[in-house]
Amino acid sequence: MGGTPNEAPVHTAGARLRPYTLTGGRTRCDHPLELDTLLAARPVPAGIDLGPDGEQIRMLCATPKAIAELAAHLGQPAQVAKVLASDLLTARALVIADHDATPHRRPDRETLEAVLVGLRAL
Fold it and tell me: Rounded CA gap, 59 and 42, in Å?
């Protein structure tokens, strides 16, 4: 890693990027997203590269996921998950899932504990 303080840090495989790097410094999103907004994956339009983070979010949203769950899975603050998800909504790789269209099931204890651990880590 080394170098002078003015040089950009070198990231190796598996290194965690800073949140502002993932969002390009953006903190606002183009879509009204709340922590409980459910997102679902859709087929990606041809010729669109979502990048590794976008693909990871799409895979996570194979079954509808809330923004809070995405943040926990990504290990990032909720606002970062919102900005990344908003980009995918704009690219039409995700849709906002209708709460009434998803089966009414309570999350199991293991999922709730995983979300709690992720939120505490933020």
Answer: 10
Between 17 and 63, the higher pLDDT residue: 63
**Average of per-residue pLDDT values in the chain:** 76
Nearest Cα to 23, choosing from 72, 113, 85, 104? 85
For residues 37 and 25, the model is more confident at 37
The band of 17, judged by pLDDT with boundaries at 50, 70 and 90, is: low
Contact 48, 40 (CB under 8 A): no
